């Protein structure tokens, strides 16, 4: 309790107009990566499968590296192997088997890592390692399953990607330009309530207009669906910030200039993909997420 006559401590806030140094690198990276992702989603089949396989390989490598292990040797190899087998089954349209393998891979990786002891690492971070199977694998299976809906799947994935990117861009621009109270200062020293509002607003606007171009429907329903995905995107961003704080690192790797690692770049998508899958299940397969 504050002493009498003492003003309460102000909530942490970010100053407006600061930290634009990484903007150029972010723009250049987006110019290279975004068209490749959109093209693979549009083409589907082998191109999309290759994109997901490459992404999963990098994501699992980064996760295992964060845990202080190597993806080529056990127990670290359990993460990419479990995700790869589950993804292969999903591509072959055995979804139940894919989810079963993902769950089994999580449990086996956890048990195997917990049972390993050596002089240099007396206590393996077994649960942290195994959680990577679920963190990356669940999103991967959802992205595979969403694309299996043919034309509707293509439209839904394009909608998902553009909404996630709009949320990221809106949050970045509004947060850096306007500053304001921090969203969760214990987790992230940069994310603000202003940025969250900017990301939500831009995602809803972009989602509404994109939906009208992809399939007939209501602008307002599309904006509502975009809002759900934008909230999931920002929750995923905060989760990734908490993960990096737990591991005491600034970036998951230095793979992408201006962004850090692929986990840094796809944190929102890893959370938004399961949210999109839930929307698809609620409305029924074969339809647009904003139907």
Detailed description of the structure:
The protein has 291 residues and is mainly α. The protein has two domains: 39-148, no CATH class; 151-291, no CATH class. The protein is built from nine helices and two strands. It is globular, with a radius of gyration of 20 Å. The termini are far apart. 46% of the residues are buried. The model has no long low-confidence stretch (mean pLDDT 89).
What's the structural blueprint in terms of helices and strands?
Blueprint (H helix, E strand, L loop, with lengths): L12 E2 L8 H21 L1 H22 L11 H14 L3 H21 L10 H22 L2 H29 L1 E2 L11 H22 L4 H29 L14 H22 L8
Antiparallel strand pairs: 1-2
Helix pairs in contact: 1-2, 2-3, 2-5, 3-4, 3-5, 4-5, 5-6, 5-9, 6-7, 6-8, 6-9, 7-8, 8-9
Question: Can you list the strand order of the major beta sheet?
Answer: 1-2
Task: Please give the alpha-carbon distance between the first and last residues.
Answer: 51 Å
Strand percentage: under 5%
Q: Indicate the mean pLDDT.
A: 89
The total count of helices amounts to 9
Number of domains: 2
Low-confidence stretches: none
Structural category is mainly alpha
General form: globular
